[in-house]
Design goal:
The protein has 9 helices and 13 strands. The protein has 275 residues and is α/β, with parallel strands linked by helices.
Length: 275
Amino acid sequence: MSSLRQVLSKKLSKRDLALLRAGFDVVGDIAIIEVPFELKKKKKIIADALFKLVKNVNTVACKLGPHFGKFRRQKLEVLAGVKNFITTHKESGCLFRLDVEKCYFSPRLGSERLRAAKLIKPGESVFVACSGVAPFPIVFAKHSRAKRIVALELNPVAHKFALENIRLNKVQDKVKAFKGDVKKAFEIVHEKFDRLFLPAPKEGSSLLPPLLKLAKKGAFFHVYDFASEGAFSEVAERVRLACEKVKKKCEILGVVKCGQHAPRVFRVRVDARLV
């Protein structure tokens, strides 16, 4: 398949092509692009080219800024195709219904969700904080032998889609979703778990102390964060200090790259265990 730059090579100048962000996300039948400020006047040309380039895409939308607010929403503008933000995304044999404007979802984490599922041992109880429309819990239910998986999400729209997705994927026997704040997780769930996941890089370590109330003795936990090359030890130290805040000790088992977030900045997963 031709690249976006190749398709636009006769429509944009060399200077414009150099500024073009050729990467984009496809969530279901919606392609989402970022257009630099310098190319704002060319955004329709870029969107039309992408619409023709990518098969099975019915909508091309442009990000109008980063995710914002406690519900992690994303302001988008439709530039080509159908004006629609609700879609069904297929991943690892799972289906995820969502509104791409009102719910946080990253298709780039598909491989990481499968890798994380392989960490789960047969019979474990698993808790997923900041679970969004439930991609992590549902992939875990389909690709691990976890006994029980509990998800917690603050965003009411994402929680509604999570409940729909649990039914859609027929994992009601394994996955239970709650709506609420991670800071009050134990009061909401009233349960302790063998393994915990915190896939919210921007808040990760700061949300860990209240989450540890849900951890059994010797529980494993996995905290996602952003780190530049050479600074992985710093994110591990943040996890250790977060444990100390609630008088817990942990063993850092490793820091794993999960993908690139920005130039020389990576999404990482800190694997740890209470001792």
